[in-house]
TrEMBL record:
SMART domains: Aamy. It comes from the Bacteria. Belongs to the glycosyl hydrolase 13 family. Residues 135-492 form the Glycosyl hydrolase family 13 catalytic domain. This is Cyclomaltodextrinase. The lineage of its organism: Bacteria, Bacillati, Bacillota, Bacilli, Bacillales.
Length: 580
């Protein structure tokens, strides 16, 4: 057994309270190395009376490791434990003292989870697990009030450029709420709505004023009320990393230099404020001089921004925030942000923009979720034909083991956004591949999000091309694709198993493009079969029961000799379900 591959620490994603009575434990081993792993646990004050064993299961695997997991319910909310690892004629014990050849004498030297404190539980809002999000850039969704169009507004549907406007606004969203409800949307994420000189509004001048080109504060409140009446939750974009060059405090620094009372609001390297060889003398978003970076450690800045966060939660009964460039803001700020937001609305959903491993923000004291771009990249590589199903399965396993289960259940899964090429473009404008990716999105663990227009076939390369106007001409919409999205959304919303059931890969191979995975809970089991290749494929798996149905057609699917064999057309799929 390769002992150096064994890894466990009694914290973070390796040992955490899932709820008020359950602790999840994970341990890593070399892939295929361990035949069985048992967690032996009990109460440190009554080891003999509470000691119990739980067999662990392989919850996920990647190229190098198996990740074993067990769910333990301590009798008195305290837990002390060690692991027994078996492989052939070898047995080792893993505890706080290290890896031992003989069983430790408990409880001294055991790992400990000292106590399940309800106040420390990482509880993600339950509604987020049931949400289907729709991302809207208000400037490009619909022009409901031409009277508030910016000067020089272009005709709707023109070529998007860095600085042009098409007149989209809040009234346009209100006018199309029927469309969103019919599609099955029950949550909207809006890119910024506040006063800003740009079309994207990520350079904010006034954080408490809706941009007049979108409407006003009263209209935003009406929009949220109308959404809530339909059962639609609303997230706004919190741009707290940086502001606009026209932000009043920054204008004061430009005018008064080091003597400005706001000089400490920003990260200023030298005066005067200028751009030298393309680099500003003050920190910015990227190197854009028009987006100066806030010093969020400054008490006045922190108080100002936290007041903004609380204001909109209370003013319009906002359901949460998406946090722009959140990884470039200090953790102390986000810890206070969470306290303020959750105090104003305990059910608020906090989603950070982090493009890589985000565990340090997802330990219960900062965010509820992050935009899951690592999953996006993996999905697009596989369904784009650049990865075999075995590698895909391993990558998924690695991603799932990055975070605790409650995070995985509500992580913000997307396939494209305002910052990336459109889904169709990412997959070579092959609608068959796109459909497979969409099936995966709506049958995988996590909270799915659609970028506006993907469902009717909108195309676009990277920014600004991905920010095209929504197509409202029925003759130019892909109605078959729209109906496909509507069907998959309905399937997910109608079956809690697809939202919170256990995920497990059943079939995936190196040098192969097909896969089968399942979602299962105590009441239902779904299996999703996919052929990500240009040739027909027949897949066969052992299933003893004969009570399967096609989840979309309702037709029965029979077993033959304890097996199910399905022939899938090129880039085809089947979703089977059965009651348990």
């Amino acid at each position: 057994m390769q002992l150096e591959a064994l890894y466990h620490v009694p914290r973070d994603k390796w040992a955490y309270a899932y709820d008020r009575e359950t602790v999840h434990l994970r341990i890593r081993a070399k892939r295929g190395d361990a035949a069985a792993i048992t967690v032996v646990s009990g109460d440190k004050y009554d080891w003999d009376g509470t000691c119990a064993e739980a067999q662990m299961e392989v919850a996920a695997a990647d190229d190098l490791f198996d990740y074993w997991e067990a769910h333990v319910k301590p009798r008195f909310r305290r837990l002390t434990y060690y692991f027994r690892i078996e492989s052939g004629d070898e047995t080792f014990f893993v505890c706080e003292k290290g890896i031992l050849p003989e069983e430790p004498l408990p409880p001294r030297g055991n790992f400990e989870y000292p106590f399940i404190h309800p106040v420390d539980l990482f509880e993600v809002p339950a509604w987020a697990k049931d949400a289907v999000f729709y991302q809207i850039m208000p400037e490009r969704f619909a022009n409901g009030d031409p009277g508030n169009d910016p000067e020089g507004t272009k005709p709707w549907g023109g070529k998007p450029e860095r600085e042009n406007f098409f007149g989209g606004d809040i009234q346009g969203v209100i006018d199309h709420l029927d469309y969103l409800s019919d599609l099955g949307i029950n949550a909207i994420y809006f890119t910024p709505l506040f006063l800003s000189p740009s079309n994207h509004k990520y350079d904010i001048v006034d954080y408490k004023q809706v941009d007049p080109h979108f409407g006003d504060n009263k209209l935003l409140k009406e929009l949220v009320e109308r959404c809530h009446n339909r059962g639609i939750r609303v997230l706004l974009d919190a741009v707290f990393n940086h502001c606009s060059r026209e932000f009043p405090a920054f204008l004061d620094v430009l005018e008064n230099g080091a003597d400005s009372r706001y000089a400490g609001w920003f990260h200023i390297k030298s005066f005067p404020l200028e751009v030298v060889d393309g680099i500003p003398t003050y920190d910015t978003f990227g190197f854009y001089p028009d987006m100066p970076k806030f010093n969020t450690a400054n008490p006045e800045v922190k108080a100002f921004l936290l007041d903004v966060a609380e204001y909109w939660i209370k003013e319009i009964k906002l359901d949460g925030w998406r946090l722009d460039v959140s990884d470039e803001i200090d953790h102390s700020f986000w810890r206070d942000f969470r306290k303020v937001v959750k105090r104003a609305n305990p059910e608020a959903y906090i989603v950070g923009e982090v493009w890589s491993d985000s565990l340090s923000w997802l330990l219960g004291d900062q965010f509820d979720s992050v935009m899951n771009y690592p999953l996006s990249d993996t999905v697009l590589e596989f369904f784009g034909g650049k990865m075999d199903s075995g590698t895909f399965s391993n990558r998924l396993g690695s991603l799932l083991m990055r975070y605790p289960q409650q995070t995985n259940e509500a992580i913000f899964n997307l396939l494209c956004s305002h910052d990336t090429p459109r889904l169709l473009n990412c997959l070579g404008e092959d609608k068959r591949r796109m459909k497979l990716a969409v099936v995966f999105l709506f049958t995988f663990i996590g909270t799915p999000c659609i970028f506006y227009g993907d469902e009717i076939g909108l195309t676009g390369e990277g920014d600004p091309d991905c920010r095209k106007c929504m197509e409202w001409d029925p003759a130019k919409q892909d109605h078959e694709l729209h109906d496909f999205y509507r069907t998959l959304i309905g399937l997910r919303k109608n079956h809690v198993t697809l939202r919170s059931g256990r995920y497990r890969m059943l079939k995936a191979c190196r040098d192969e493009s097909c896969l089968v995975y399942e979602r299962e809970d105590s009441k239902q089991q779904f299996t999703i079969w996919m052929n990500n290749s240009a040739e027909p494929r027949t897949l066969t798996l052992p299933f003893e029961t004969d009570d399967w149905r096609d989840a979309l057609s309702g037709n029965r699917v029979k077993t033959d000799g304890g097996r199910i064999s399905l022939t899938l057309e090129p880039f085809g799929f089947r979703i089977l379900q059965r009651e348990l």
